[in-house]
Design a protein that fits this description.
about 230 residues; mainly alpha; ATP12-like; ATP12-like fold; three-stranded antiparallel beta sheet; two-stranded parallel sheet; 10 helices; 5 strands; about 55% helix; about 10% strand; globular
Length: about 230
């Protein structure tokens, strides 16, 4: 879509903080007012709209996309999204470790074990860890505590957690980022332990590296989004 406006600014409409394009409020794909909870987030989203040149490129507007997702997809079905995100804990990335080679075993342990320990300390939710890919059951009590934590989030924070969990493949990584236990860059490093080890052994592959960079950018955007809430 071609850029159709001259000015983008943070402002108010119907009492809500939003972005104004030539004085008109931005709406989501479902025509909901792009309402935001803080002036800082509204200004940052306005900045994304100002940065568009001739064409509007949605992928260059991650904060706008997160707000739209929160309003259009998350808010109307909070319980379903909570269940979707919490289900990652049943087979979480950080709970399934390599058996060989030793270098990968050590790399996964260094990146993931502190996060599993943090989860137990922060939420009193202990997840079992195994070697290999054979599914193992997790404690129903721990899964319930993780779900309760997720259910306590508002739509904006749930959108951020949902994005981070889907991108990383781990609700443990997502929760650690949401609690500021790790940064966006550290979340990306934790999510990419296996890929980085593979590249170190066999060399870099352009498509795989591009995919990793994209996921890193998404996690950095989630970190910034959470900081602006």
């Amino acid at each position: 879509m071609k850029r159709f406006y001259k000015d983008a600014s943070a402002g108010t409409h119907e009492g809500a903080l939003t972005v104004l394009l030539d004085g008109r409020p931005v709406r989501t794909p479902k025509r909901t007012l792009l309402a935001m909870p803080t002036a800082g987030l509204a200004e940052a989203v306005a900045g994304e709209w100002r940065d568009q040149v001739d064409e509007i490129v949605p992928t260059s507007m991650p904060l706008t996309q997160l707000v739209s997702t929160a309003l259009d997809r998350i808010a109307p079905q909070m319980d379903a999204v909570v269940t979707e995100v919490a289900r990652f804990a049943e087979t979480d990335l950080v709970c399934y470790r390599a058996e060989t080679p030793e270098s990968l075993v050590l790399a996964e342990h260094a990146a993931w074990s502190p996060l599993v320990s943090w989860l137990e300390e922060a939420l009193d939710a202990r997840l079992a860890v195994t070697s290999g890919i054979q599914p193992i059951p997790q404690s129903a009590e721990s899964l319930a505590k993780i779900r309760a934590e997720i259910a306590g989030l508002d739509a904006m924070r749930l959108a951020a957690l949902s994005s981070a969990t889907a991108v990383s493949g781990s609700v443990v990584i997502g929760l650690a980022l949401a609690h500021s236990r790790i940064t966006g860059a550290e979340a990306a490093d934790a999510a990419h332990v296996d890929e980085m080890h593979q590249m170190e052994r066999w060399g870099r592959e352009q498509d795989a590296e591009a995919h990793m960079l994209l996921r890193r950018a998404e996690l950095l955007a989630v970190e910034r989004f959470l900081a602006l809430l």
